[in-house]
Amino acid sequence: MWTAIASLFSGLVFGLGLIVSGMANPAKVLGFLDLGGAWDPSLAFVMGGAVAVSAVGFLLAGRRKASLLGGPITLPSLRHIDRRLVGGSLLFGVGWGIAGFCPGPALVSLGSGEVKALVFVGAMLLGMGLFEVIERRR
């Protein structure tokens, strides 16, 4: 039960952070990505803060044997860059640049009933399903 409560709390804080920071607003995100036009650098501070918090979290998690709720801590172990990582990053970036959404903000925007978010999440789920089908054939 505590795991569910902690997950709910974490999700609410994350979603609130996306809304307050402007990351759930596609127009603001596209303004940040428009380096040649009316560039809005404010989201760079949001991303910098996220990287700093993540770095501290990974550092602390690496020193523990179990999570605060007693569950296992699994940290990424791969350290090399391959074609799949680069391809996935490119696909993510292109989708972000076209739609102004990435997965987290798109899910948050579903709550507002925004049609663009619904289309994005539908396409994202379709892509995830297609990936699973392709991976199973390998």
Descriptive report:
The structure is a single chain. The protein has 138 residues and is mainly alpha-helical. 70% of the residues lie in helices and 0% in strands. The termini are far apart. The model has no long low-confidence stretch (mean pLDDT 91).
Class from helix and strand fractions: mainly alpha
The poorly predicted ranges are none
In one word, what is the shape? globular
Secondary structure tally: strands: 0
Overall helicity: over 70%
Question: How do the SSEs run, as a string of H and E?
Answer: HHHHHH
Secondary-structure blueprint of this entry?
Blueprint: H1 2-21, H2 26-33, H3 42-62, H4 83-99, H5 103-110, H6 115-137
Short description:
This protein has six helices and no strands.
Observed structural traits:
single chain, 138 residues, mainly alpha, 6 helices
